[in-house]
Structures are given as structure tokens and as C-alpha cells.
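Reviewer comment 2.1 asked that we show a complete input and output for one of the modelled complexes. We chose the 6-O-phosphono-alpha-D-glucopyranose case, as it is the one discussed in the main text.
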Amino acid sequence: MCGIVGYIGARDATPIILNGLKRLEYRGYDSAGLAVLQNGKIEIRRDAGKLSHLIELVAQSPLSGTVGIGHTRWATHGEPSARNAHPHIGHTGRVVVVHNGIVENFLELREELAAEGVTFNSDTDTETIVHLVEHYQATGLDLTEAARRTFKQLRGANVVVLLSADEPDKIVTARIGNAGGVVIGYGEGEMFAASDIPAILEHTRKVTFLESRQMAIVTREGARLETLDGEPVEAKIHTIPWDPVAAEKGEYRHFMHKEIHEQARSLADTLAGRVDFQNGKIRLPELNLTPELANRIQKIYITACGTAAYAGMVGKYLIEKIARIPVEVEIGSEFRYRDPIIDENTVVLAISQSGETADTLAAMEEGRRKGAVLWSIVNAIGSQAMRIADGYISMQTGPEIGVASTKAFTAPLVDQYMLAILLADLRGTLDEKTRRQLVSDLRLVPDLAGRVLNTEPEIEKVAWALKDIRNCLYLGRGINMPIAYEGALKLKEISYIHAEGYPAGEMKHGPIALIDETMPVVALVTKDPWYEKMISQLQQAKARGGTVIAVATEGDDLVPTMADHVLWVPETPWLLGPVINVIPLQILAYHIAAIRGLDVDQPRNLAKSVTVE
Ligand code: G6P
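Response of the prediction step:
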């Protein structure tokens, strides 16, 4: 997601904002801008391109003022350009806004505003926010109330920071859906609002975080926190430690926990720059996928290790279903020993968080040797798997420190979904309506992830109930079968509990013999095309006395009658189900391991990147 820095104090806001944005550069962006209140007027500098370019713009045409907001943007609605760069100012010239996230109902809001005669200067969803604020101000509301009304109308995972020349003593910010965070920093006679801690760390270590559906009115003296319904909220102030590792962990005890929680945001980042919601199109420029290549591909081998291989299994499903190209998944350590059948119309697609896993690289080399087109989906920028590929998709999730992979599992699921749509589009095998629907469904993902993350307290209770188990069976079908594998892998990696993932339909061919009261069964029984089959498998497990933990879709009243514990997930378009369904399993594994007092981030015998065969 984009970076945000806001400042209100006594110092010159411009260098503080520009430095803050610099600290967020690592997140990636394609445009940058800032707005400062100067002599009672809002002044904006913004453009496509890097921060260094914005700094030049500011040098040519300086800004000065003690209140301002800045932004680095990754395009979702409209190309990277000056007119689409943030901040966005309203028609009165008195309100300005920066925004992270996706306004899911933006087309609706835009139509309503257009019907009132509002014209738009950009293609962004963000611009609707500033016009809505002005719309409410015109009815006589002050900035805070106009902002509150606006925030309540926005659907999806969104963070907004805005200011008005008419009320120059405040910045208003909100975390609306289940978006990535807003951090508010407390200084002496000055305050900060940012999307990430590093943006403000050089100025203050006293911070508070907004929860979902909270807003803050930030003045030079402090911040007043409220829910979007106007209930006062007491700010819990944290002091960020000086130790850089601890500082990076922020409010979390372990990196894995932090990385699980980053997923609402990392999934928004995954979409950034790739999805054109207006036209229902996908852009993956680094893949170098031409229509000619798309049309001659006859087969795709996905190769990867560990968690990444399970991501590939979901990818097989997505690519075969959406693009109708045959896909085989082979783990990296086996690929080169099976003499795979490859020619120049074959793609070898490697998935790797580190981009340095020896077995995955060896599989890529085998593909190269046999003349395949080599692609990779990689998190670590500049790694070998990225460099040696003919084309790549960068995961855009930021560094992952915890050995057990979490956010680098969900990102490639979305990457492969986008890849499948792009392939189908270029091959002409997807009708426009379906393509637009598939693309449009992507906008839901960050908020759905955030909603699951909010259920953590219930999942933690289940973890307490399971903390002493010795074995666990995970069952799933269809596109959720790999999620059963991944759920089991997470548990065994960090809690050292023996766990097995199994295709649920295979249970009767063996594993059912294992089920008794000492063998809990985790079943993925969400509303997808295999729902009814899973229900009958759940009954079989229950009949044999096993404790059943079901991942189920909110509103389902059948599953709770058969399960001892339910981990709820919101209703999700089923092709994107795995992205959401794995999150409760990550949280469950995390808490079981944490309750057992284990070294979650560095489990015994495991390494983050395995560079030997
Ligand atoms: C190691 C890690 C796993 C990871 C696998 C593949 O075994 O412990 O968590 O899934 O390597 O890593 P990669 O960097 O290629 O995704």
C-alpha cells in the first residue's frame, strides 16, 4: 500500500514529510506528492516518478508551512501521472486528502457525486473522498463531522488523512475498513500521523495505533480518538524501543505475528500497480508476457519448495480454471530428477520468497537447459530467482523475517490469480463480463483479510484448547486442499506438533484409521463448490470421536452443529477463498506455538532460506 506522512507542529512541515516518505520508499511506489498549508492556502506539489523528482519540484518551487500531508502512491485506479498522484484537492481548494487502500464502492459514490454536478480531475477512487467531505461541509458541518460522514460511506480497507485550510489547527485521519495501520506520533508541541512507524521514528518514539473504524483529530497538542460513530476512545500510548530489531517488531512479540497481521496491507500492496479496476485489466509488466507468448504456451510447470510449493498448488487450480492451460506442480528438489518434458512452449514458473532456495534454482536451471520460458514469483528483490528468469512477478509484500512464511504465501496466491486472468485475456479465452468480475473481486481481498485478522481473540481461545495436542489432521478439498497442507505445515514448523494435511476425499482410504478422541481434525468447510462433500467428511470425522475444528463461512448454521470449534471467515469469491482461509490457520498455529513458549520466529532445525541441496 502507499505511504503516508502527516505533520502538524511548529517546524517546517516540508522536510519532515519528505524525509518521512523517504523512510517508506522501500515499500515501492510510482508517484509522490505533498500538500502544505501556506499562508492560509493549500499548496500542492506532486507528480509521477520517484521522491527525488518530488524533491526537485519542491526545490524549484518551495513550500513552507507547519501543517502538511505527503504520500507515495502505487497506482490502482488510473495510471501513474501528476493528475492521479496524491494529495487530491477539492473544488473549493480548501480541503486536501491522501489515502491508502481501495474504496470498494467508488464507482457508486462517483456516480452519485457526478449526479450532483461534481466533476473529476483524476481517475482515482481517492478523489471521491475529498468531494464527499466538501459535500458535507456545504451542508454546514465542520471538518471533523464532514470527514466522519464521509468515512462512514466508504467501503473496503482504507486509511485517509486530510486537512482543511479553514481549520488549520488540525489533521483528521481514519482507519476505515480493516486496512493496514495508522500510527499517530506524539512530539513536544507537534504531532505526526503516518502509515508506518519508520516514517516518524526520528522524531518520536511515543505512538498510538488506530483500530479499524476509528478516527483521530490530531492537533499540535495531541490527538482525540473516536470511533466512526463518535464514541470517545482512550489512546493506548506505546513507546517504541531503541533496539532496531525490537523497533521493527513494533507492537508485536514476534515477527511472524506481525507478518500475519500485515496481510491486509501486503495484499493491498500485491494489487498495487497491477490492477486496472476501471477497465477490468491486469498489468504485470515485469513478466514480459506478450500476446504471442501467451498464445503459444502449452504447459506450465510450477516449481517451488515448502510453503511456496503449496502456493503453487493453488496456482495450478487458478491457472487451469481461468486460463485453461495445463499446469503441473513439482517440488524443487524433485523436478530436475524426473526428466521433465519441456520444450520452448513450456513455462517453468518458480515461486520463492527468498529467491535463493537451492532446489528451486536448480529446477529453474533444468528448465533453462531444456529450453523453457522461465518465470518467477519472488519476494526478495534482486535475488537469483528474479535475475535468471525471463520474466518475474515481484511479491511486493516487504521483507519477511519469521522463518514460517505467511504474507509471502498469500501474496503469490493473488499473483497467480492475476497471472491467470492476464493469460486468459491475452489468449482470448475469457469473456469480458467474467474477466471484469474476476478483476473486480480482487478489490475485496484486503478488507476480507482484515476481517479475519479481527477474529484473532476467538482463534486464540481455540489455541488454548489445543495447546497440548500431539497430532492433528488437516482436511480440505479442491482449491482448499493445499490450504490444508499449508495449515498443517505451519503447525508442525513452529509448534513441533505432528500435523498432516490431506485431501479430504482420501480420508476414507487410510487416515480415517487414525481418528479417535486424541486426533483433532481441522477441516476447511467454507462455501465453495466442495462444501457439501466437506460436510459429509466432517460428519465421518465427528462420528469417530475426533475434536473437529472447522473453518467456515460466516452465517453458516450447519457447520457449528458438527464442529467443536469454528474459525469464521467472511464470505469470499471462492477462487480467492484460499487467500482468506489460510489466515485463521496461520493465527491458530502461531498461538499454539506461542502458548507453548517456543521460538516462533526461529524454529529449531529450520532456516529462512535453504541455499544447499
Ligand atoms: C525453507 C523455509 C520455508 C520456505 C521454504 C522455501 O524451508 O523454512 O518456510 O517455505 O524454505 O523458501 P523460499 O524462499 O524458496 O520461498
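The radius of gyration is 25 Å. We note this here for comparison with the apo prediction described in Section 3.2.
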